[in-house]
Amino acid sequence: MNIQALLKVPMTTGELLSSLRARLEPVAAKGTYISEHMPELVQATIANAEEAYKGMMVLPGTGGVREFVGNPPYWLERRHNDNEFLWQLNRMTHWQDLLEAYTLTRDDKYGRKVIEEMLDWIETIDIREDMVNYPIEFYSQCHPLRALELGIRNYHTWPLVLEHLGPTDLFTEELLEAYLGAVYKQIKILRKVSPILWPKADHNHFLMECLGILTTALYFPELKEAEEWKSFAIHGIERCVSAQLTEDGGQIEGCPSYHNGCMFWFGLAVVLSKRFHFQFSDAYLKLLRKNLDYSLYSLRPTGKCIPVGDSTAKPIAVIGALYGYLALDDSSWLGLAANLIDYEKIIHEVNKHIWRALDVKRLHEELLALQGNPYECDKLTTFWNRTLHQAIIRTGWHSEALSFLFTCRSPVQNAHAHIDLMSFDFTALGKNMVCDPGIFCYREDDDRRQFKSASYHSTLLIDERDHFEYLSSWEYGPQKTGEIYNVEHRGFYQIASAFHLNYEPAVHYRHIALVDDKMLVIVDRVKGLDDQEVERYFHLDYTEVAAYPDVVLATSHMANLAIYSYPWEAVDLLPGRLSDEHDVARAATRVRFRGKQSGTAVYLTVLVPYQGDQRPVVDIRPMGDASFELSCSENYQVIVNDRDMTISCGRE
C-alpha cells in the first residue's frame, strides 16, 4: 500500500517516522528505572519472553499450560474445538513480554522476533479493501479479522511495537510502511462495522473496538481520517460509559471480571487523554469513580474476585484499583485492595500494566507505600445494585469477614450471565465456602453447559429444570421476570430478598441474611407447587463433606462449614467443579437437598462457619407454616411472609 496516499499532507516515510518518534513515550527511561528498582519484574518478563520466543504459549484450550503454537505462529489454526484459541492467538499478547524484554535487555532477538511475526501475519492475513463491504456477520466469525480482534490488536499490542521499537534502528521506514498499511486497513473496516454490531454501545466489545480506533488516530494524526476517527472514538467511549456503567456502581453485564476489564479500558482512555491532551466529560469521570467501588465490593475477603457469570476468581480487582490511580490520581482503591490482597499478588497484576504509567517512578513509590500500611475503609458493608440485581453484604472489610454476593437478574443482559437466579457465593473466616463455579471456558461443549447450568450454582430448582433454557454457549430461551427487590441493614442482621417467575405457575422467593456476624440464614418460599420435586443446591469449595442425620459438615484445615436445614429432606453429595481461571477447574462438592411438595413450601437453611473440631450446635423448630425458632448460642425467631423475612433475637 502507498501510505503517502493515506496522509492529509504529503510527506516522505522518513518524515512520518520522525514525526511518530517525536510523540512516543520515553520507554527506554522507563526500562532503566524498572531494571534498577524492580528486578523480579525483569526476571519474570524475560522468562516469559523466552517461552514466547520458542513459540510456547498458554491459550484457551491448552488447559493452563504452554503449548507450541508455531514459530512464527500458525495464525489460522483453530485448536481444541475452541474459537478463543485462534482469536486470542491473533491478539499477539505475547508480544508484550518480547517487547519489554527487548527494552530491558537490548537483545535484538526479542525485537526481531516481533518484527518477524508481524510481517508474517501481514503476509498470511490478506486484508483487502473490498472486505469493508463484507456481510456484517463475517466480523463475528472465527478468523483473525473478527471485529473484537481488530480493536484489541490496535489498542493493546500493535502500539507496543511503536513504543518499544519505534525509536530504534530495528524500526525502519520499510517496516513503518508495512505496519501503517496493515493498521489502516484494519481500522478502516472497524470504523464501519463496529457501530453496526453494537448500536447501543452496551457491550465491552464496542468499548475495546473504540479504543483501537482512538489509539490509531492518536498515534497517526497525519492520516486523512484521523480527526474523524478520534471524534468517533471519543464519542463512542462516552456512549459506552453512559450505556454500561450503572449509577449504583458495576458494569452492566454483571460479571466482576468484565467489570474490572472495563475499569482498565475506561481508565486507559483517560490515560491516553492525559498523554495526548484531550478530555472526557465530567459525567464520564464521575461514573468511572463511582464504578471503581464495585471492584472492591465484588472482591471476596480472601482477596479473589467473586466469579459470577463469565468471571474468574483472581485478584483482578487490582486492575480496577490501578486504573483508578492512573486515571484519577487517587490511590485509595489500591490501598483498600491491599487490605485484602497480598502485596506480591498486587505486584504480579500491576506488572502487566506498569509500562502504561506516565510516571513509572511515582507509581512504584505508591506501591511500595502500600506495604504494611492498612488503609482505613469507610465504605458501607451493604451494597445493592438495582440494575444488576446484585446484593453484596459483608460483616466488615477485613480478611476474616463473612461476606456473600446474591444475584437474581432475569431477563439477563447478555449470555455472559449464567443460569443462576437467586444463587449466592459465601466467604467466611478466610475461606471460600459456597462458591459460584466461575467461567471455565467459552467452548460450545458440555463443560460450558455444565458451568452455566442452574444445578452448578447454589440455588433452588424445580424438577431439576434450569430456570430458563440453555440453547447454546451464547444463547438462552425466553426468560421471565426475576429481581432483587429489597436490601436492608437491620441492626444485627443484613438481608437481601428476591423472587423470580421462571417456574410459573410456581413462584420462588428467597431471603438471605447475615446474622450477628456469625451465620448465614436462608429462607426459600415456593408457592404454586403441584406434587413437584424441589432441589436446593449448595456448591461447596470443599472435598471433605459428610452428611449426617441432622447436619452436613464440610471440613478443611482452614475453616469448616455446618449446614442445617428444615425440613430435613433427602441429602445427596454430588461432584462439583470450581474454575478460578480460564480453562482450569478443581474438585468441589455439591450438596443437594430434595423432596416433593405441593402448594406452598418454606425451607430454612442455616450456614454456620467455624474453626476447630467443635462444631456449632443449631436447633430449628417450626412454629407454624412460616415461622421458626432458631437457636445458635442465642435464640432467634424467624418469621416469613409473602415478600419478607424478619428475624428477632431473644436478647432484644
What report would you give on this structure?
The structure is a single chain. The protein has 17 helices and 23 strands. By secondary structure, the chain is an alpha+beta fold. Strands 8, 11, 12, 13, 14, 15, 16, 17, 18 and 19 form a 10-stranded antiparallel β-sheet that branches. A hairpin with a 2-residue loop joins strand 9 and strand 10. It is elongated, with a radius of gyration of 26 Å. The mean pLDDT is 96.
In short:
One of its GO terms (molecular function) is lyase activity. The chain is an alpha+beta fold and 652 residues long.
**CA gyration radius, whole angstroms:** 26 Å
How many runs of DSSP E, i.e. beta strands? 23
* Overall residue-averaged pLDDT value: 96
Total of DSSP H or I helical runs spanning 4+ residues? 17
**Span of the ends, CA to CA:** 80 Å
Q: What structural class do you assign from the helix and strand content? A: alpha+beta
| Global morphology | elongated
Q: Helicity level, as a percent range? A: 25-40%
Q: What is the strand content? A: 15-25%
Could you outline the blueprint of secondary structure elements for this entry?
Elements: H1 13-23, H2 27-37, H3 39-53, E1 56-57, E2 67-68, H4 83-89, H5 94-105, H6 108-124, H7 147-165, H8 173-197, H9 204-219, H10 226-244, H11 256-276, H12 282-297, H13 317-328, H14 332-340, H15 343-350, H16 360-369, E3 382-385, E4 390-394, E5 403-407, E6 423-428, E7 431-434, H17 446-452, E8 460-462, E9 470-472, E10 475-476, E11 482-489, E12 493-500, E13 507-515, E14 519-540, E15 544-547, E16 552-555, E17 560-566, E18 570-581, E19 584-610, E20 619-624, E21 627-631, E22 635-640, E23 645-649
Antiparallel strand pairs: 1-2, 3-4, 4-5, 5-6, 6-7, 8-14, 9-10, 11-12, 12-13, 13-14, 14-19, 15-16, 16-17, 17-19, 18-19, 20-21, 21-22, 22-23
Helix pairs in contact: 3-5, 5-6, 5-7, 6-8, 7-8, 7-9, 8-9, 9-10, 9-11, 11-12, 11-13, 12-13, 13-14
